[in-house]
C-alpha cells in the first residue's frame, strides 16, 4: 500500500493575558511569539519542499489560532487552507475560566469530576481520537491523490485532540496526566500511513527555539 505522512501541527502561542482556558471561544488570536512560531514552521516545510518532499495538502481547524498558524505555510507552499471542523479543540466545561485550585474546589464543579478517565468535564478522549484519525485518513487519501507515494499532508489542530489521536494510533490508553503530554506549541506529531493504517509516529519541534518563556496555560 502507498505510504503517506500526515503532520498534526499544534497552533502557535495565543495572546491570552488573562490566562483563561479559551477552548473553542472565538477571537483568540496568535501572539507575536505565536506568529513567529508559525513562520518558523512554514520555513521548516519550505525546506522540505526545496528538498523534494513538499506537503501537498493543508487542513486547519476552524478556530482563528489554527487558521493563523496555517497561513504562513499556505503562503510558503502555495496551498489552499481547507477548513475541517473535525479537528477543532475539545469541548470543556471550564472553557472561558481561569482554572485554579480555588476555582476547581467550588461545589458547582464537583459533578464534572465523577469520571476523570472519560473525562466527565469535557469531550470523551475516544471521541476526540476517532474524529481526528478519521480526518487524518481523509487527508492521507487526498494527499495520495495529489502527490502519490510519499506524499505529505498537514493538519493544524490543538493539543488535546492531537495527543488523543497519537495515543490511539500507538495503541495506548487514552486517559493520562496532562502534564506529561508531548505536544508543545507549534510542534509536529507526524503519522505515517500505509493505506489507512498508522505504521509510524514521529514527534518534532520546529519552533523549539521560541518555546522558552512561552505561555503554558493548561489545555491551551
From TrEMBL:
SMART domains: PGAM
GO CC terms, sorted: cytoplasm
InterPro entries: His_Pase_superF_clade-1 (IPR013078), His_PPase_superfam (IPR029033), PGM_Phosphatase (IPR050275)
Cross-referenced Pfam families: His_Phos_1
Superkingdom of origin: Bacteria
SUPFAM superfamilies: Phosphoglycerate mutase-like
Recorded GO MF terms: phosphatase activity
PANTHER family in UniProt: BROAD-SPECIFICITY PHOSPHATASE YOR283W-RELATED, PHOSPHOGLYCERATE MUTASE
Identification of the protein by name: Fructose-2,6-bisphosphatase
Amino acid at each position: 500500500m502507498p505510504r503517506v505522512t500526515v503532520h498534526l501541527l499544534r497552533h502557535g502561542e495565543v495572546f491570552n493575558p488573562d490566562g483563561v482556558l479559551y477552548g473553542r471561544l472565538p477571537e483568540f488570536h496568535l501572539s507575536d511569539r505565536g506568529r513567529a512560531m508559525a513562520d518558523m514552521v512554514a520555513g521548516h516545510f519550505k525546506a522540505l519542499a526545496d528538498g523534494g518532499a513538499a506537503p501537498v495538502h493543508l487542513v486547519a481547524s476552524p478556530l482563528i489560532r489554527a487558521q493563523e498558524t496555517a497561513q504562513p505555510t499556505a503562503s510558503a507552499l502555495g496551498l489552499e487552507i481547507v477548513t475541517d471542523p473535525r479537528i477543532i479543540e475539545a469541548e470543556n466545561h471550564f472553557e472561558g475560566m481561569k482554572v485554579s485550585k480555588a476555582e476547581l474546589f467550588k461545589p458547582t464543579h464537583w459533578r464534572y469530576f465523577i469520571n476523570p478517565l472519560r473525562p466527565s468535564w469535557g469531550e470523551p478522549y475516544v471521541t476526540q481520537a476517532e474524529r481526528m484519525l478519521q480526518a487524518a485518513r481523509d487527508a492521507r487519501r487526498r494527499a495520495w491523490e495529489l502527490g502519490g507515494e510519499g506524499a505529505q499532508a498537514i493538519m493544524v489542530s490543538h493539543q488535546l485532540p492531537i495527543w488523543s489521536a497519537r495515543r490511539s494510533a500507538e495503541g495506548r490508553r487514552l486517559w493520562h496526566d496532562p502534564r506529561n503530554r508531548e505536544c508543545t506549541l507549534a510542534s509536529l506529531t507526524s503519522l505515517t500511513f500505509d493505506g489507512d493504517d498508522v505504521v509510524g509516529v514521529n514527534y518534532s519541534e520546529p519552533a523549539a527555539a521560541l518555546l522558552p518563556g512561552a505561555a503554558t496555560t493548561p489545555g491551551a
